[in-house]
Every structure is written in structure tokens, then in C-alpha cells.
Amino acid sequence: MSEQPPKSYLVESILVTLFCCLPFGIAGIVNASKVESRFYAGDKEGAQRASDEAKKWMKWGIISAAIFTVLYIFIMVVFGVGAATNSFY
Fold first, then answer.
1. Alpha-carbon distance values, 45 to 36, 68, 79, 85 (Å)
2. What are phi and psi of 52, to 5 degrees?
3. What InterPro entries is this protein classified in (predicted)?
């Protein structure tokens, strides 16, 4: 039975790049692209490090998108309520 390379998180990193946060997604893609090449070159520790880095950047992209979404909603609610109560009619 042959050993499998670590999860690359390439698809997740691409989705983060497209829908969440471009810089974190790109960092994830760069690291995800190193996983299989390092694994098949015999550098299993390097492949695992690249996988861990890709996972880290993918998670930070999702977390930052969630934080910005919550902040955006909060700001819209606060200023939306303020605009509705201070009309200039």
C-alpha cells in the first residue's frame, strides 16, 4: 500500500481567493502547490509543513472575511438607524 501525500488545501485556497480574501488565498495557493511536489520528491516533512501553511492561510482568509462581514453589517445597522431617525424632511 502506497502512502498518500498530505491534504493540499488547493481547492479551499482557490475558493478563499475568489470569494473571501485575495492575499490570504494566494498565500494558501502558493503553499498548496508545494505539497505534492515535495512529497513525491521524498521531502515528507516539507510536504506536511506546506500543507499546514496552506491550511493556516486558508483559515485566516475565512476568519478575516467573517470579521469584515460582521463589521460591515454592524456599520450598516448603526448608520442605517441613525439615518432613519435623523431625516431632513
1. 12, 35, 51, 60
2. -65, -40
3. CD225/Dispanin (IPR051423), CD225/Dispanin_fam (IPR007593)
Phi, psi of 43 (to 5 degrees): -95, 80
The three cell numbers of residue 59 are: 483559515
Phi, psi (rounded to 5 degrees) for 54: -60, -40
Give the distance from CA 21 to its chain's centroid: 6
How far is the C-alpha of 71 from the C-alpha of 67, rounded, in Å? 6
Report the SS3 class of residue 78. Answer: helix
pLDDT tens string, the chain, 89 residues long: the values are 579 999 999 999 999 999 988 999 999 999 999 999 999 999 999 999 999 999 999 999 999 999 999 999 999 888 876 666 665 55
**Rounded CA gap, 49 and 33, in Å?**
12
Three-state secondary structure call for residue 51: helix
